[in-house]
Every structure is written in C-alpha cells, then in structure tokens.
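hi!! sorry for the late reply, been swamped w classes. u asked for the two structures so here they r. pasted raw, havent cleaned anything up. first the sequence of the first protein and right below it the tokens
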Amino acid sequence: MRITGLGHASVFIETAAGSVLADPWVNPAYFGSWFPFPDNSRLDWDRFGQADYLFVSHLHRDHFDPEHLRKHVAKKATVLLPDFPTSELEDALREVGFTSFVRPRSGEVVSLDGLDVLIQSLTSPTDGPIGDSSLWLSDGEQTVLNQNDARPADLEAFRALGPVDGYLVQFSGAIWFPMVYELPARAKQAMGLSKRERQFDRTLRYIEELDARFVFPTAGPPCFLDEELWGFNDVFGDESNIFPDQAVYLSWLESKGHDEARLLLPGTVAALAEDGCPTVHPWDPADVYGSNEAKAAYLRSMQSRRMPEVDALRAAWPHPEIDVLAALKDWFAPLLAEADHIAGGIDGGVHFVAEDAERGDVDILIDFVSREVREYAGEKVRYRFRTRRAYLEQLIAEHEIDWVNSLFLSCRFTAHRIGPYNEFVYIFFKCLSEERLNYAEGWFAEQNAAEASETVTLPGAKGAKWHVQRRCPHLKADLTRFASIEDTGRNGDVLTCQMHGWKWRLSDGKCLTSVGHDLRCAPAGSPVPGEPVLPVEHTPADGLRGQHEMEESVD
C-alpha cells in the first residue's frame, strides 16, 4: 500500500485491491479566498484521475471541487458515498458525470473485490454541510483511516477492526474564528492562541487513542493569496494564528514524544508497506518550511501565478439587477415559517449590512421572533454581519443554500455579537433550502426527546466529585474522555468539553457557551435524572486543559 499526498485533504491511495482518490481539490474556494498549500496545481492530475474509486468526504469546497472532478477524474470510477441524510452529495456528483455509486450503511464494512471499506458518516446539522465522513480501508495487508476533518466522538468503531497502519487526520484550523470578529487585537490574539492549542490537543488525543503505526497530518492549512486576506497566512511567527502548517505540527508532535508522523507534500509518496514508512518528496521541504521568510517568498510566487483565477471570478460577483432585500424576503420567508427550533434558539434579530460605496449599502434585518425579513431600522440586535453587497448578490444569483460553505468560510466579512456563541445562527445559514431546514428541525426535535440517560462520575476541583450525563449535550462526545473540570471562582466548578470547547456550570447545568444544551449533573451522592450511576469513576484523559474560549466550528 502506498499513499501519495495531493495537497490539503487530497490523497491517492494504492492498495493490493485497487486505488482510491480522496477529496481532490485544486481550484480556489469560498469566493476565491482559499487555495491548497503547498500548490498542487502542477501535479499530473489526469494520472491520479484514473483511480478505481473516488471518495468525497463532504460538500465543503476544499473537498468537493466540481470543476476539477469534471475535467480530470475518469467517470468510470466507483464513488464511495457516505450515508448522509440528504442526497445532495450524490446529486452533485451525478451532475459532474459519475454514475457508479456504492453507499455502505454508516459504520458497516463492505468488501469490494478484495478491498474492505467502512465509511463512518456524521449527520448532525453541525457536521460539515449537513454531513461529514471518515473512510477506513483494508486490502488484507495494510489498513488506512482517512479521517480528514471529520470529528467523531470517539474512534472505537475503527479500533475494533484491528490495528491501523496509516492515519490521516486534520490538525490545522478551517474556520473564520476569531479573525473576523470586531474585537480588540489582544482579545483576538488570546482566542486564536487558545484555539490553536485546542486544535493541537484534540488531534493528539485522536492520535493517541487510535495508536496507528504512522500518522499523516492533512486537511490543512489553506493559504490566502488575496492581499486583503494575506495576514491570515502563518508567516509572521504568530502563535495565535489558527492556520499553522504541517512542519509546525510535526515539530509540536515530536515535543510530545511522537515520532510516527510523516510529512505529505503534494506529490510525496509514502510506502506504508515498507519498514519505517519511507517517504519520497518531490522537492526539498526546506524550500517552503525552512523559515517564515522562505514560506512567504513561496506564497508570493504562488500569488503571482494563481491570483488571475480570483480576478476572473471576482468580475462575475456583482449583480446590480438584483434587489437584495426583496430577493431575501421571498427566499427566507417560507424557511422562517418552518424554523421552530432554530428561531427559538436565536430568539432575536440578525443584522446583515451589504456594503457598496458606489451603489449604496443594503441594511437587512432577519427577525427570528416575527419570522420575517425587513429593512433594518435601528433595532437592538445581538448578531451583526458586514460584507460586500456583491457577495450577497452572487449568493442570491446562484441560490446558494449554504452560506457557511461559501461566504462565511471565505472570511470576507466581519462579525459582531453580544453574548455567547449561538450555533443556531450558523445552522440557519447552512440550511437555506426546505430539505436541509426540515432535516435540521427534525434532528433537534429528536435530540430534545431522546436525551442521553447514562450517568458517570467525574472528579471536580478541590476533591469534589460530580455526577454528569456521559454524552456531551452539544455533539455527544464522551465526557469521560473529553471533559475537564476547573473551579472558575464566580461560576464555581465549570466543565469544558474539549471536543469543541463548550462549557457548563455544574452548580445548575447551565450551558455557558450557547443557548440551550443544558447538562444533567449533580454533586456526587445526589440523584440525577436518568440511568443509575456507573460503578466506575472516570478520570478525563491526560493533557486536557481547562478554560478556553468557545471556537466556532464547521470543520
């Protein structure tokens, strides 16, 4: 078995029973903001496109690149399709030209002419664009788990299948937080440092749980070639930057006693079947990773080659013929009428400012109480976004049903909020179709009706012990592994779930991070609703840190 890195989350896996091309991405994504780093546009994509199987983990545009798939990937390939609740991914791949699909049930192994395949599909409204997935492969000789940027609550389903030889996992950021927020620089720096530490810790926890023979940090970081976004590149020695590169993470892993990780450049070949998993790089990594200056020079060269692609896209974004406010009223009105859980979770207004110095700004209020879109008239709101009018016009012209997977990931906006992060805001903007919105509403209704009942005991601060529900109310992470409890003073003992950084005050179970999602908990010895307490007391995994700011997460 061999793994060839193709940039970002893209890999070409050669097995004894066929080849698999995963998540090929080359073209600029998210309003021309993101590019693969290092540059992968000069690879022999026609050769890699002759793969026997194609796997696209989800619809984020740094994983699903329809233009590239149409031009360079043979349509004879059999698509390994995640078992998502909607047909959007299959529909998009059929539109590109693929006709052969295998859709295993999530978590079940299927055998395809000697290649065993398992796809674990994550299907909550917060998982990618209504779905993310991991791919496990075994040809009877070696086994690979390609987790890309999925975040399963645990890896037990994969560990149960036996040892893993190669593990591909995300380590870098893939989000707009905290850079776009209208906050003092010092506050954003503290939040960025916290998020970067949490990214590294989370990936380390996955690595140590799976205990694979070799690890390949992948699925990031992107690079930003547009001058107005240049500061997001990690070339300034800033440890609060959430987009550290592969070399930075490999060095950090070594400091934690791990030497099993390997660098995958675009074109690197890793011989997984050979002793020590030797890698052959297409060029000297020091040419890019040797210093911040070398990396910046590489990016400037890449900028000169590839920015014309963005300029061509940019010319098509303005649509002066579109009445933005009227179009959004017509589009959002039926959705707001059905968004009972989402509207209740937001319980207020969202103010959108579409700016244009020449044609004038458009001020929009999306009122989740009265369920209407209207012109903003100075109302007090907790959530505000500012972006360019041309971007909203393009979203309307394309009828883009997922603004998270377009505008927000572009980082071409600023945001302001009063109070804690509210996931319902972003869920609404990724569910701008009746199908998606009804799925999200049904998911929330089901979760509220079927609250996790199993209870465990966790050590608190100063010798205290707490009974808590085992599964995190946010996305069901196992709190015996991901919980950290610290005495915060004013709020007393606070539990942090390190999967996404969400917090709960244990004195009353109130979620301190977002609206709703209260935690069932009580001091040890007191009754807690649900199943009896497990007899085993649990200590959360080593290396978890306490108080962190909440990250906004779609990756």
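now the second protein. again sequence first, tokens right under
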Amino acid sequence: MTRRALSPLWVVGAASLWMAVPGNWVLWRRLAQLGLLQGVEGAAFAVAMAVMIAACLAVLLALLAWRYTFKPGVTLLLVATAVGSHFMGSYGVLIDPVMMRNVLQTDLHEARALVDGRLLLALGLLAGGPAWLLWRQPLAPRSMGRALWQNAAMLAGALLVLAAAIVAGFQPLASAMRNHKDLRYLLNPLNSVYALARETGLPQAHAATALVRVGEDARLAPAAAAARAPLLVLVLGETGRSGNFGLNGYARDTTPELSREALVSFRNAWSCGTSTAVSVPCMFSGFGREHFQPDAARRTEGLLDVLQHAGLAVLWLDNQSGCKGVCDRVPSASTCPQGDCLDEVMLAGLDARLATLDPARRARGTVIVMHQVGSHGPAYHLRSGAAQKRFLPECTAASLQACTREAIVNAYDNSIVATDHMLAQTIRWLQQREGAEGPTAMVYVADHGESLGENNLYLHGMPYAIAPEVQKRVPWITWLSPAWQRERGLDLGCLARRRDEPVSHDHYFHSVLGLMGVRTAVYRRADDAYAACSSPSSAM
C-alpha cells in the first residue's frame, strides 16, 4: 500500500515532540527528584518546559527542512538524543562544551569500552524506530519557492511558540535554572548541539592566529647551569583519585611498593578540570584555572616550550589518546599504537629513546613526560595485570551499572596498584641512570579524579563548579634521589611537613620550572610548590 506523502511540517512537529518528551526522560527524572513536578503547578511547568524544548528543536528542523538535508538532519538529532540520554542516565554525566571536547578527542579504543547493550537499546528505542518510520515516509514534493515560504513560516511559528512558553513558565523556569545549574546541561539534544557548535566553532575562529611565544628569555640559573645535568621524569596520571592511594591514608594498601620509598605525597592537591581535555592543557600552561581558556591555550606555548627555550632536552611518551596539543613542538612517541597496553610499556626501550635526544641539550638536563592510561574507565579491569589484582571480584562488564559498587571499586583500586608498580619501576630506572645522568627525580600528578557510583555518578567530566570532590582531588607524588636533594638543595623532610597544605595544577607549571632551575619572567616563585623547601644557597 502506498503511503500518503506528508508535509515536512508534520514530521517537524512529531520529531520535536518525540525528542522533547521521551528523549528527555533524564531531565524529567531530575525535575521529579527536585520536587519541581508536584501538583498542578508542577504539571504546568513540565508542559511549558516540554513545549520550550520542542519549539527549540522545531527551529533547528525548520532550518534543515530542505530536500537533501531534512531526513539526515532529523536522523542525526535522533541519534544525538539517544546517545545523550544513555550517558546522562547511566553515568550521571552532563553534556557541556567540555564534555563535547572529551567526545571529540576520544579515540577508537576508548569509545569501544563505552559501547554496551544499554547504549544499543537506547539507540534502538529512541532513534532506530523513529528513524525507520521517517525514512519509510514519503514527503510531499515542494518547489523551491514553496519550500522557502513554508520553512520561513515554520521557523516563525516555532519562535512564537517558544516565546509564549517562556513567558508562561518564566517564573518557575528562572528559579529552577538559577538554583539548579545542572538542569541546563540536561536539555537533550539541545545540550549536544550547543556544545558541538561551541567546540567546533572556536578552533576555526582562531585557526589563523599566530602562536604566542612564552618564556623566550628562559635560561638556567647559575647554580643549575654549573651543576650536573639532571634527569626529571614527569608522570602524567590519568583518572587518579587521591583518596584511593594508600600513601594518602586510604584503608586499602593500594601503594605497597611506593610506601617503601623515600618520597612525599601531597594529600591536598586539586585539579584544573574534571577531564583530560581541560586539565592537561591547563596544567602545562601558565594560565592557571581561573584564567584558562582552551582556545587561548591552543594558541600559546606552554611548559614544554619554555623548558626547550632554556636549552633542556624534552621527550613526551604517550600511552594515552594524545597530548591534547601540549607536546606538538617537542619530540614525542606513542608507546602503544594498538591500545590497551599497561603503563609499564613506556619504560621499554627508554634508554634507546633517551639516546636519540640532542646531546647538547641533554648536557644541560632532560625532562621526560610519561602520559599514562592509568585508571581510565569504565574498563578499569584492563588497567592492571594479573600480579596487581589484589582486590576481587572485579567488575568486568561493559556497563558499570551491571556490577556491584564493591566490584567497581575493586577494579579501580587494582588499577591504582598497577600505577604504584609502574611508578616504582620508574624510580628504579632512575636510580640506575643516576651515575650517567646526574641527579634524578620523579613527579607524578594525575589530571583529574573519578566518580565510582557515589550519588549515582560515574566516570568524570562534570562541570567544575558542581563536580564532586572525588573528580577534582588528585594525587601529587614527588620522589627525589639523594643526589638531587643534596646537589639541588631541596629538603624532602620539609616537603613532608607541608604535605597537607593545598596545592593545585596552578602550581605545576612553576614547580617544574623551579625543579629544573629555569629562570624566566613567566616563572612565579610564589606558585612553585617546592620553593619553600629549596635552600637559598642553591640559588635555583
């Protein structure tokens, strides 16, 4: 039987209502939890909210209602609705520009770990069925002139409906958005559309802007220039919860090897962001969290550039999905192109990699950055080897919701044991190199923390202002060889006495420069976490 052709107006209305009502079940659940849907007033607010979302979607679809863009555009919005509802509902995440940046920078290996039966079910129910009906339904043919005025009429009508809904529900809407800032990030799929436009628009706007040079005056302080060339390893951790490190007082012994080393763990350290895409560029920049802007950071040199300006050798090793732009101008290598390697792979062949660096620079000092896969979720069980699985049973399911919280925490804690082992191996490698390289040191700082089901939140990436502490509090561990302490005048005992004082990623840029004895106008001693324990006589 031949289906009767429909005007795009009917499809716009049906698709907008479908995405606004069932597609926003996470929003309705959240409003119910806040008690905003109770009684007649609550029901009226829900209707006004649904109409506002549907009207906004109708505006978008009216702009796409052309012969070759309409059905593909509706389908993409349906898929965005399904995917957004799944991740917001299952993991408690919010979709904002930072989260979209995470999505755009996610590689195939990371994405594969997030695909499970629940996601496929959401795609089938919220996108697959409606899309199947859409593509089977013929649309009434329209001339260009007729399409133009009809689309303009749809656009105007949708804007009028939107304005009326805003006026009708303004008082409860303004109050809800002001008191519960997370609601704006639950408006599905408008949140994804806005975030995508924001993230893809900004880089293009600044693509032609020249790179801003930073720290071109960098040089080694006299005492540093006269000393033996140091070797510093910076281990950039991934998804590290400070509270789950045994060194920081955790009830479980997740750091058995590090606990035998003479080192200091700062227990009150805070991240710049709640995702790799924000924290890594932020901590390697000199902006600090309050002034950090992703587009500005992309156009500005960072810590590794300043180290090179000072004449030091720099090497970036990556066991992750990339350096987020901070290593673009230094020697770098991926240690696990196939994905899912344990972090100790970065130590394999490290002597040979070190030998390839400029000998003139190495004679002044070397900084190696190791970017971990660390405790990257949700597949925490893949981040530890058999020897590190101290806590069982582990969650091995693709969906964290299919596991008990105990199994999730077990898998996560085992990944910390694996990090402990990798850091201990790094220290042993440095100890072996000390005779040839001069004094050695290691600093481990994680990029952000993680939610493991507290308040039904999982993973990370929440907007910083409303993110829980576990996503923002990170480990910061410092190991200094006796030669480093002696020759470079840094008192480990003094650092230990200051281990509970607050530090943050804002200190990282200046602390690394201070450790390497780099002096430049962009260095701020007040933001150097080690400066208070440096000997004045060292003149570093």
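hope this helps!! also noticed smth abt the second:
The first strand starts at residue 219 and ends at 220.
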